[in-house]
Structures are given as structure tokens and as C-alpha cells.
Structure to design on (266 residues):
DNA sequence: CACTAAATTTGTAATGATTACAATTTTATA
DNA sequence: TATAAAATTGTAATCATTACAAATTTAGTG
């Protein structure tokens, strides 16, 4: 994965901050918050500002290389995976799982004549690890 | 719908505020925010405090007679409908629609051995009214 | 290499929803 | 009525996010 050309080909000028933030998001698939991203990167880029993290993530989203979602109305979480997928949060250990939606044949008969641009699904419960212990 | 006995049978002492707030939620199916509820009721109950609205809704949720969800990480919205259903938000007119999920046979093969307690679905796009105009 | 304009980054202040908490009021109980 | 418990209220604190202006970096021109 060449981060610089990935940014460039999506009309994002590849500054140091942008490269590092995207790289971080690409390698850390645990849906970090702004605060987590900032705290993990400020060692690398000592002048980094949290505002830059906010601005940069907004830029990524506007240019379609990052997605965002919110669980339970708390902090926004970010994801470099752009394929539509659901999320599962374990109420016991707090772990956030990616869930592929193979049967997105969701029938919403009421929405026959609606244009659906975006499907957002998240599930809550107990994960397999927590169930077996 | 007898609101007083509905509250009582769910272990909620029916104060004036609680009755009015639940009645409001039951009759206004447009998923109001705390602010909307407060502004609409303060005429009726001039001493009403926004904190009471927050406290009361939390009580309703804890006792299972109200559900809550958040769209786009903004203010929480409240719903007296407890049957599991999805929501559709029109990106044009902003209207929020209830959507019944008839085929909640959603197959999440990855979650075979997970316990799913809660399914949260919301969709975004353009509603039929906005499409035809 | 200067010089200048545009783009990016940064720090601080403002906003807005939600929560904490202590004081006041209302309700239940003896 | 007297007292304790429960509910309500108002204010202050918290915390994520945004606004904004200053500072820095980058790009373009001669
Ligand atoms: Mn994900
Ligand atoms: Mn609803
Ligand atoms: Zn777990
Ligand atoms: Zn519409």
C-alpha cells in the first residue's frame, strides 16, 4: 500500500500529517477515536494538533477514503475500510468487531420507492469469547 | 392508552412530569430530541426543568418503555415504540421515517456463536416525496 | 536564490449536548 | 402534624467538536 499515491489519486495533497494519519488508520483496524489517533501519533509528530486530526479526517471522509460512525452517541470512530460492513460491540469486553453483511438483501418494502444511499448497521450483545468464559 | 397505568405497571411512579413526557412521546412519533420535548412541554408545565426531561427519559429507557438512538452523532432521539425497527433519514428534507424490518433474518455468519441482544439499523438517502419533486 | 501568494497546520476560544450535584419541593408514612 | 424518602429543579462542570485567527510551510515566479 503506497499511502502517498493513494492520497494523491484521491485529490489529497500528501503532507506529513496526512500520510501519517492515513497510515495509522490503515494499519489500526480497531476503529480509533480522534483522541486515540492523536495520542498515538503525537510522539511521531511532536507539533501535531488535535485540530489537524479533526480536519484531516474530515478531508478523508469528504474525499471518500475514510468512513466514520458512532456507537451509542459517544465519540466518532474512524475506519479506513470503505466497503459497506456492520459493526458488533460486545457489552462485556467492549471489543468492536467488523461484520461483513453477506445478505444485504434486507427487504424494506416500505422503501421501495426510496433511494437508499447509505446503510448503517451496528449490533450489540456478547461476543463468543466472553460467552465461553 | 392509559398512560398512568402503563407507567405504574412498569415500576415508574406516575408524577405529572412523567405522565406528560410519556404522553408527548407516545403521541409525537417524530423522534423528538430532549430540546424539542422540553420546549413543547414547558408551556404546559412552567416549572419543568430540562434536567427532568433527561432524567425521566433515562428512567423510561432503563424500565423498557422508551428507546433511543442517535443519527450522525448528534443529539439523541427518543421513541415510545419498543418494537425493533429501522430508521430512514432523508438527506434532502431531513424527515425521519420508521421502517419495519420484515426480514430481520440478517445472516451474519461471522456471528454464529455471538449473542446478539440489540440490532440498530439506520439508512440514509432520498425519500420518495423528494425524489418525485 | 529571494519574494509573494496560497495552502496547511496550529492553538485557543466558543459551542452545545449531556451529566454531576446540591438545594428545593413534593409525596409518602407514621 | 412531623419526618423521611422521592422527585424535581437550577447551576456548574464535563467533554467532544467546531470556529477562527495567527503562524508555519509549500508552491510558483522571476
Ligand atoms: Mn469497521
Ligand atoms: Mn422509530
Ligand atoms: Zn466480549
Ligand atoms: Zn425527503
Amino acid at each position: 500500500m503506497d499511502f502517498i499515491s493513494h492520497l494523491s489519486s484521491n485529490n489529497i495533497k500528501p503532507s506529513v500529517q496526512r500520510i501519517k494519519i492515513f497510515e495509522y488508520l490503515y494499519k489500526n483496524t480497531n476503529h480509533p477515536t480522534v483522541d486515540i489517533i492523536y495520542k498515538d501519533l503525537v510522539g511521531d509528530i511532536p507539533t501535531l494538533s488535535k485540530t489537524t486530526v479533526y480536519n484531516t479526517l474530515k478531508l478523508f471522509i469528504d474525499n471518500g477514503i475514510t468512513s466514520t460512525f458512532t456507537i451509542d452517541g459517544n465519540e466518532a470512530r474512524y475506519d479506513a475500510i470503505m466497503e459497506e460492513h456492520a459493526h458488533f460491540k460486545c457489552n462485556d469486553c467492549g471489543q468492536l468487531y467488523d461484520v461483513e453483511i453477506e445478505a444485504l438483501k434486507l427487504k424494506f418494502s416500505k422503501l421501495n420507492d426510496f433511494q437508499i444511499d447509505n446503510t448503517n448497521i451496528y449490533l450489540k450483545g456478547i461476543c463468543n469469547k466472553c460467552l465461553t468464559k
The two ends of chain B are 38 Å apart (CA to CA). The first helix of chain B runs from residue 3 to 8. The pocket of manganese (II) ion (ligand 1) is lined by residues A 31, 79, 81, 85, 87, 98 (CB under 6 Å).
